[in-house]
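Weekly sync, protein design subgroup
Attendees: M.S., D.O., the rotation student, P.L. (late)

Item 1: inverse folding check
M.S. brought a backbone from last month's batch and wanted to see whether the design step gives back something sensible before we order anything. D.O. pointed out we never logged the input encoding, so this time it goes straight into the notes. Structure tokens as presented (146 positions):
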């Protein structure tokens, strides 16, 4: 965990190991909108996420409360409004989410899942296979590749 300054107050920023991930796509959308805005009121998040999805203001307020309970966002009262700020970087959340998804994917028989992953990567961009090979080599301690 590290501390950063936001609006004159210190905010603790969580690392990926401490995360309780959002519980669904709406929680991710709300969290990422708070990350993007740096600081946001319920109204601002509702404008950005809720209106486009036809959601009530109170729904967004409840999602913000859930994210606060999971300690993914902090909050501070400013006048009559609560202002929310992210306690975790979006990239950290995305990496933790990817790890969780891959853990589920690879939980059973890993070889078919691994082969499918390689095929999917290659179908997106064949040069990514070379990049994957270099990343594996670096991970194994061979910085210049195989």
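Designed sequence read out in the meeting:
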């Amino acid at each position: 965990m590290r501390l950063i300054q936001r609006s004159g107050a210190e905010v603790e920023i969580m690392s990926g190991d401490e995360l309780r991930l959002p519980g669904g796509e709406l929680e991710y959308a709300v969290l990422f909108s708070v990350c993007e805005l740096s600081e946001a009121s319920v109204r601002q998040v509702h404008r950005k996420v809720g209106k486009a999805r036809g959601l009530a203001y109170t729904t967004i307020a409840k999602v913000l409360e859930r994210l606060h309970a999971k300690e993914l966002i902090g909050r501070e009262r400013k006048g009559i409004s609560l202002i929310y700020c992210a306690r975790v970087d979006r990239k950290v959340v995305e990496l933790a989410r990817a790890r969780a998804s891959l853990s589920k994917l690879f939980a059973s028989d890993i070889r078919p899942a691994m082969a499918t992953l390689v095929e999917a990567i290659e179908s997106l961009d064949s040069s990514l296979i070379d990049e994957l090979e270099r990343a594996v080599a670096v991970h194994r301690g061979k910085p210049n590749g195989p």
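Discussion: The mean pLDDT is 85. The chain has two domains: 2-90, 106-146.
Action: P.L. to compare against the previous round before Friday.
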